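Hey all, sorry for the wall of text incoming. These are the three entities for the joint prediction.
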Amino acid sequence: MDETPDSNKTIRLASQRVNLCLNSGNNPPNFFTPGQIIPLEGCMRGHGTYFDKNATTLKASVSGVLERVNQLILVKPLKSRYNGEVGDVVVGRIMEVQKKRWKVDTNSRLDAILQLSSVNLPGGELRLRSVEDERMMRKYLSEGDLISAEVQSIFSDGSLALHTRSLKYGKLSQGILVKVCPALVKRCKTHFQKLPFGVSLILSNNGYIWIYPTSDLNEEEGGGFLQNLDKRITTADRGVITRTRNCILALAASKMLLFDSSIIYAYEQSMKYEVHELLLPEAMLDIAILTQEILSRQTDD
Amino acid sequence: MPVDSRRLQGPETTFSYHLYVNKQPQTHSQWVKQVLKSNGKRSDGRKLDDIRKIFLKTSVMSQAKGSAYIEVGNTKVICSAFDPREIPNNNKFSLNGELFCEFKFANFSQKKRRGFIRDAEEKDLSVCLKRALEPAVCRHEFPNFQVDVYALVLEDDGSALAAAITCASLALADASIPMYDLVTALTLGVHGDHKFLDPTSEEERLCCHEPPGQNKNHGLIVLAYATELQQVTQLKQIGVMDSEFLIEASNSLSSHCSQTHKLSQQCLAQVVLKTTKEKKRLLELGETFKKMDVGSQKD
Amino acid sequence: MASLMLGEGEKMLILHGVEDDMRNDGRTRRKYRPMELETNVVSHANGSARLRLANTDILVGIKTEIDCPFPETPNLGKIEFFVDCSANATPAFEGRGGEDLAMEISNSLACAYNSFPLDQLCITKGEQCWKLYADILILECGGNLYDAVSIAVKAALSSTEVPKVVGTVLDGGTVDLVLSDDPFDCQKLDVRRAPLLVTLCKIGDFCVVDPTAEEEMCSVASMVVSVLENGTVSSSFKCGAGSLHSETVKEALKIGKEVGQSLNQELEEILLEEQNLGPKRELFGFLK
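and here's what came out:
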């Protein structure tokens, strides 16, 4: 074993605790706490705010940052579950199989719903849903399975309706799921990322990140309900996947935005460590700082 | 301590008069001598690696779906298993059936009177019993249901848990609960260089003390084994010993368990033989009745 | 935990990862996740410790009280373990939900601590002794509870200070206890024979040390081995609904012994290091 003696230590003292927070040179924005008066006049009430009894003063109802769109005032909570928007890419886990629909956990307040009618069934797109299909539902997707999907619409109670009517969506096969705060995932043009070192990511908007090996068959593989369980991931691929996982967790621990280049930089910086060393808080902080430096240098240029 | 108000309570601090009986050997070597005779035989005449005589019987209780009774020397345990029933207060669907086990010492089963309310030891042994039986039961055949198994130790003269495991597995088989295999269990008591297979309570007591010599190994090992599956379903060890010794001991215990396994099988088969004999007799009886009937109609 | 579910693909990856000796977080089969330990975090307890192992968070407080020894063992003190699965960890522990788990852990600790020398807790033979109450609070659980709890308990015991008491038997058989005037006149406990529990989770054909919650989902049976400083085993048992092959048991005991011994050693070193920080060290507690 070629480990540094420090990484061999598994028990540490609280006095050696590492603060994973980064200082970002930005000035902290204005925070509001529940009940605090928002000193603005003649505005419209948005999410995270309420009018008090005599409807004169606007108050915040969540702790967060004030945002203003023209006359609309809203307070965005610092930490929240996923608030879905139509068109978002999400990764979710099937929690329950019901009549003609699946309940999916997507880290939002309510379980999302995937209708049997909004999935592509094997054997062509234009096919009527038969009673047979209803019986086979558990065969396609059963409790515990992971899927990638797109938000189709939002019900009045706030729960999401998903669809997988595209070849890129469907059941996920072998890979690792990492859960991070949804706010940390940067909105990008595409949330399906193929990283240069043989690993692919679904950086879903709901904060569930799926890491899986890049394979030539990826395009055809997606969208179906087939899982390739026989294929064994090579040790080299596994090393890359686990390293990516630990890098993402390191960035998330320091509250860094997650997008393709931040992950790639973090991965490159992490090469000086063994994969398991990335579990140590010192290494996690080091990578986060280095990545932040590179990113800020880029924006300066 | 929790108290059951429905029962008559003795004075709060009573203790056994055995404490005043001055039979306790003074020195350690005297104690060992008392348990192990100089000719290498134990106080009941067994050799160190002999097990006591086992008596097994199934269907001893009429109310339970299946039941079994076991006598290992003076240790007597009675077990009953009940039909699968819906898991009470459970609203979640569970794919595998549950096994609910309760292990109880009768109040008079030991020298010291046991309390009526289940104490921590009994709860621990209940969990052990459950873990020992679970792997042998085809739990997927009764999803969302639970099977209750109750083991009551009538008399404890050592190895009560092992006897209860063997007995409970027979009771389950007798209740026609689908099982992969029968589980049998044995106890090994360790005290220094001496290894007592299937120890009595006196030997168990000795094994819980640290020997003064070089070899500090002491303690008890209970191993439950499913012979056909070749799987250890439970291993419970208390007392300080080397891991190498423990490995070796568990190996020898599993081979001994295979021998008692045959006994369990025999016991179950005998019931069938007996009932077929009985059935034959009844059939013959029926035949004669029929003949009589026919005869009477003719008249 | 019931709330955790895994798909077939994830399970397969974990299984193959264990076979390749490269787990999902990059660890080998025999490696622990980093832990963080702090002792004396609770001021009202005689000794306490808090351990964080990834998501698992354990707080142990030791209280000492005076009791009468059992008539069978007049010269021994008593130790008792209480585990409380706080509903803070998961809503499933609410009410009586965590009771079964709590009982299993406290019983396994009671079994494992049979090696602990209780004669150091004797005050006057047959009359008075110390009773240690080890109250274990599970604040968060992210897998591998047995190991985490046992490390926290041992650390808390090592920090425990028992007040010096002189007991004299008076004429009528009553005992007169005299507590030292100096509140700092305490004695530390000897924890050299306090065991650590090592869980060996069987995944595929291999035994894995320090399983994460996800890995625990992939396994049906594990061996828990309690190991002393010198490598001897003070108790062991199987937990989980599955069964093990004799060879697996053998391997588990072997790995458990080695891992447990080195863990014991490491704990001793780190406790010494903390002690060397002096009595005026800064307490970190729950603030990050």
